[in-house]
């Protein structure tokens, strides 16, 4: 016993490094990490050439850290250890009140908000179809009272003022969500997820109402929808922050009972391949941890939604992922909706407008994406 | 390979320890020699040849210096030859690009810019091998006739890439006669974990703080700029001393005992004292192999001042091939000369807190010189530190300062001997073994967590 006491640190150390080493060597490896949504490094190619150049050595280290035993556990431990030191936000996400995990504000100096606004204005000038633009405020700005005391400032107020001014002197119909969203939140609406950077279905529905009003069309009334709620949704801010003890979100599908297989067709085109489905919701994604792709199957280059019950009209949507839960509402107002994601769609949007004989263009971005997006350059 | 990596901790180290301890004593140096090369060559196998070349060259020099000891001229020639070869290696790999760039200032020259990759640790091991030839020549250490033992010394992995600079005479006996014990191993584990925690839990975080603040430039205000450079001062100390601790701890695990490289430098009351506590093995090296051979203080005051300038010029240059490192060295040279001839006596009379503030001020200002290779950026940062025109503290800097405040305080306390003194007082207490072991376990887990986290790259906004 005396000896054990004396050598205890050595014993603990050796046990730990040897079991970590053996566990790595012996346990089976996973190919895919669902929480990171990426394929893990595969065993590097060993040849005389890759070895001598040192490439093998470097790739092997990547492989090792990707497949370290207990990786998920250690990443979580690291997150909570940082938190214990007062470092809330080093992962770029704040653990906030009521289980909200909120992305830190966009970089106030190095961002592309002005460039992208300019691109959109010029685009609107170059076409003869009305353009409506809406930008989703950041969760941190709207849910400000949930944030930890010490956080970087969210300057949405300033940004939205400059959007407002900038679009005023253009032919873009800018639907400003900032103040309405603050009001709704004050009245108890949950507009954003707690564990994901997106808005909730309610948030998207509120925006839908405001957009319809500004375009002088009638939104489907709230009572028309039957709301289905699904539990255990763990979104991107959850998996990015590694606060594994944080409770899950609920995710709601707002289903209009009038839209059935009979009248709804969704076609997703990727490259040469087009797949067809007859529901606005891709429920197979509800079994996954990140359930947000239930809306229009996640990020796709080109999506066409047709609703034979809807009034005549064609809407073109240029968007990021925030639109996925907004556009299903608009399917009640347009017979034909074409949605393109500039990150993957490299065709000309003005040609698309012409060939589709479009009546209206809607541009929808979350403010963080708009600030970093470099693909709007393709908007021509 | 670096110590603070998963590869080292969980594959290389267990393998080395396991095989080392089952290998008969006779072959342990040979085994160490081989794994040293694996350690060194990982990521850059080609430089193993350089290491072997260094080993052979210095072995041969040592051998013949010893053999022709009676022929003063020849022996001296051999020492010079050894120094020239070592310094040429260092000069070529580390300084060629810098020298070319500097010479290009001359209008009639146009040397194409060189990009020679720097072999890791070359500044450390060339100094070690030089010390060997010189010590053998001076009769300060015995010649090593066994090339394996010698090779083990040159490339000994614990101190190979970031020191301490172990002089041959300090480990000559240990190389062939060390006896590993469990006490020493256990002690090594503790020292290693202290070093690992210093590096991973403090230095890396302070690095993040420094990066975040530095990027905001003028917007930081005067106080923000000071917090930034203080964070960098902590980063560099905990990084470097953490690495030295890990080296000493690993040495212990293999039966070696290295000399201490850092002794709480930030508690110094003078800059003279600071340099006795900071990177001790480098200071010792320059004193023994440059300052004293140049005559030290024995040839009159003007000569002493010149000698000090030479030593501090070289110390600066050793830290990096750029102008700011030379300035940094000379800056300390000048301050040391001033302290030596009058300020030192004055400081001794002043209250302690004044001397502490004086020293920290000089040291921190030194780190600004040390960090910025670009002179414009250097002047801009210094400007921010001494003007109120940019405000007291910017909102970004304030946010980061508050977030890192607990860690800044912990780093400040850990820069003093407080914890070490407390440990000495408590270590005989009844349950101390339990507390100590628990701390080791916590350090291991949390450091591993931080290392694993570096590879955690959520890929969330993209499709695949």
What does this molecule look like?
The complex is a heterodimer of chains A (380) and B (464). By secondary structure, chain A is of the alpha/beta class. Chain A folds into two domains: 2-69, no CATH class; 94-378, no CATH class. Chain A is built from 13 helices and 14 strands. In chain A, strands 6-5-14-12-13-11-9-10 form an eight-stranded mixed sheet, with helices on both faces. Chain A has a two-stranded antiparallel ribbon with strand order 1-2. In chain A, strands 3-4 form a two-stranded antiparallel sheet. In chain A, strand 9 and strand 10 (273-277) form a beta hairpin. The longest helix of chain A is centred in the N-terminal third of the chain and has 25 residues, at 2-26. Chain A is globular and about 85 Å long. The relative contact order of chain A is 0.12. The model of chain A has no long low-confidence stretch (mean pLDDT 92). With 464 residues, chain B is mainly alpha-helical. Chain B has two domains: 6-178, no CATH class; 184-416, no CATH class. Chain B contains 19 helices and no strands. In chain B, helix 6 (147-154) packs across helix 8 (168-177) and helix 9 (182-215) packs antiparallel against helix 10 (221-253). The longest helix of chain B is centred in the middle third of the chain and has 34 residues, at 182-215. Residues 460-464 of chain B have low confidence and may be disordered.
List the helices and strands and how they pair.
The complex is a heterodimer of chains A (380) and B (464).
Chain A: H1 2-26, E1 32-33, E2 38-39, H2 48-52, H3 55-66, H4 71-84, E3 93-95, E4 101-103, H5 113-126, E5 131-136, H6 139-142, H7 156-168, E6 172-175, H8 178-186, H9 201-214, E7 226-233, H10 236-241, E8 249-255, E9 264-270, E10 273-277, E11 302-307, E12 314-319, H11 327-330, E13 336-340, H12 349-356, E14 360-366, H13 367-372
Parallel strand pairs in A: 5-6, 5-14, 12-13, 12-14
Antiparallel strand pairs in A: 1-2, 3-4, 7-8, 9-10, 9-11, 11-13
Helix pairs in contact in A: 5-7
Chain B: H1 6-22, H2 25-41, H3 47-67, H4 72-103, H5 122-138, H6 147-154, H7 157-160, H8 168-177, H9 182-215, H10 221-253, H11 271-277, H12 280-291, H13 301-319, H14 323-349, H15 352-371, H16 375-385, H17 395-414, H18 418-426, H19 432-453
Helix pairs in contact in B: 1-2, 2-6, 3-4, 3-5, 3-6, 4-5, 6-8, 9-10, 9-17, 9-19, 10-15, 10-17, 12-13, 13-14, 14-15
């Amino acid at each position: 016993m005396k000896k054990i006491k004396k050598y205890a640190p050595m014993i603990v150390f050796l046990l730990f490094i040897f079991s970590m080493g053996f566990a790595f060597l012996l346990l089976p490896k996973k190919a895919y990490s669902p929480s990171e949504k990426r394929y893990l490094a595969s065993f590097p190619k060993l040849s005389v050439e890759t070895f001598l150049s040192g490439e093998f050595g470097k790739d092997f280290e990547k492989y090792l850290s990707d497949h370290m035993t207990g990786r998920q556990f250690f990443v979580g431990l690291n997150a909570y250890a940082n938190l214990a030191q007062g470092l809330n936000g080093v992962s770029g996400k704040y653990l906030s009140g009521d289980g909200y995990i909120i992305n830190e504000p966009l970089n106030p100096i190095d961002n592309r908000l002005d460039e992208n606004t300019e691109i959109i204005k010029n685009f609107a000038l170059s076409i003869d179809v009305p353009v409506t633009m809406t930008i989703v405020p950041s969760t941190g700005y709207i849910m400000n009272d949930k944030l930890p005391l010490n956080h970087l400032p969210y300057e949405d107020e300033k940004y939205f003022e400059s959007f407002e001014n900038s679009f005023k002197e253009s032919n873009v119909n800018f639907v400003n969500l900032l103040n309405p969203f603050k009001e709704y939140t004050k009245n108890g609406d949950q507009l954003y997820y707690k564990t994901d950077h997106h808005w909730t279905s309610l948030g998207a529905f509120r925006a839908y109402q405001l957009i319809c009003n500004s375009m002088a069309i009638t939104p489907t009334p709230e009572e028309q929808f039957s709301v289905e709620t699904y539990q255990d949704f763990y979104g991107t801010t959850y998996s990015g922050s590694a606060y594994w003890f944080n409770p899950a979100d609920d995710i709601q599908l707002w289903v209009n009972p009038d839209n059935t297989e009979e009248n709804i067709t969704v076609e997703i085109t990727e490259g040469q391949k087009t797949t067809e489905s007859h529901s606005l919701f891709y429920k197979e994604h509800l079994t996954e941890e990140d359930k947000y792709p239930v809306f229009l199957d996640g990020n796709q280059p080109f999506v066409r939604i047709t609703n034979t019950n809807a009034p005549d009209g064609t809407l073109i949507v240029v968007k990021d992922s925030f639109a996925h839960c907004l556009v299903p509402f608009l399917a009640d107002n347009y017979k034909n909706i074409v949605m393109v994601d500039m990150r993957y769609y490299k065709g000309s949007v003005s040609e698309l407008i012409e060939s589709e004989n479009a009546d209206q263009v809607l541009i929808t971005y979350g403010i963080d994406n708009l600030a970093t997006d470099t693909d709007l350059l393709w908007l021509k | 390979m670096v110590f603070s990596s998963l590869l080292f901790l969980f594959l290389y180290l267990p393998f080395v320890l396991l095989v080392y301890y089952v290998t008969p004593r006779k072959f342990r140096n040979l085994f160490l020699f081989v794994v040293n090369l694996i350690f060194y060559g990982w990521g850059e196998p080609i430089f193993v040849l350089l290491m072997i070349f260094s080993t052979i060259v210095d072995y041969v020099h040592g051998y013949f210096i010893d053999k022709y000891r009676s022929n003063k001229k020849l022996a001296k020639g051999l020492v010079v030859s050894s120094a020239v070869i070592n310094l040429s290696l260092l000069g070529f790999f580390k300084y060629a690009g810098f020298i070319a760039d500097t010479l290009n200032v001359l209008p009639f020259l146009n040397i194409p810019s060189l990009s020679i990759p720097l072999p890791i640790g070359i500044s450390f091991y060339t100094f070690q091998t030089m010390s060997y030839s010189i010590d053998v020549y001076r009769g300060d250490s015995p010649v090593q006739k066994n090339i394996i033992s010698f090779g083990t010394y040159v490339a000994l992995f614990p101190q190979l890439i970031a020191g301490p600079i172990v002089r041959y005479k300090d480990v000559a006996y240990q190389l062939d006669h060390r006896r590993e014990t469990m006490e020493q191993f256990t002690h090594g584990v503790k020292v290693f974990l202290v070093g690992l925690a210093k590096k991973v839990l403090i230095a890396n975080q302070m690095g993040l703080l420094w990066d975040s603040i530095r990027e905001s430039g003028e917007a930081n205000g005067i106080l923000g700029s000071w917090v930034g450079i203080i964070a960098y001062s902590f980063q560099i100390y905990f990084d470097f001393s953490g690495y030295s601790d890990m080296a000493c701890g690993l040495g212990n695990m293999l039966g070696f005992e290295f000399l201490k490289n850092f002794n709480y430098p930030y508690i110094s009351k003078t800059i003279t004292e600071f340099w006795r506590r900071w990177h001790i093995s480098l200071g010792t090296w320059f004193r023994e192999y440059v300052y004293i051979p140049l005559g030290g203080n024995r040839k009159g005051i003007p000569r002493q001042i010149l000698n000090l300038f030479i030593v501090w010029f070289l110390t600066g240059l050793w830290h990096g091939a750029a102008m700011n490192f030379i300035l940094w060295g000379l800056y300390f040279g000048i301050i040391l000369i001033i302290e030596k001839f009058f300020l030192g006596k004055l400081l001794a009379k002043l209250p302690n807190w004044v001397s502490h503030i004086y020293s920290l001020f000089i040291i921190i200002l030194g780190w600004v010189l040390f960090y910025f290779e670009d002179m414009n950026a250097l002047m801009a940062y210094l400007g921010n530190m001494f003007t109120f025109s940019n405000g007291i503290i910017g909102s970004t800097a304030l946010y980061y300062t508050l977030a890192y405040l607990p860690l800044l305080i912990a780093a400040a306390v850990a820069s003093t001997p407080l914890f070490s003194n407390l440990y000495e007082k408590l270590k005989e207490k009844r349950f101390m073994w339990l507390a100590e072991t628990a701390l080791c376990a916590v350090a291991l887990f949390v450091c591993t967590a931080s290392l694993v986290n570096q590879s955690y790259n959520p890929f969330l906004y993209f499709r695949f």
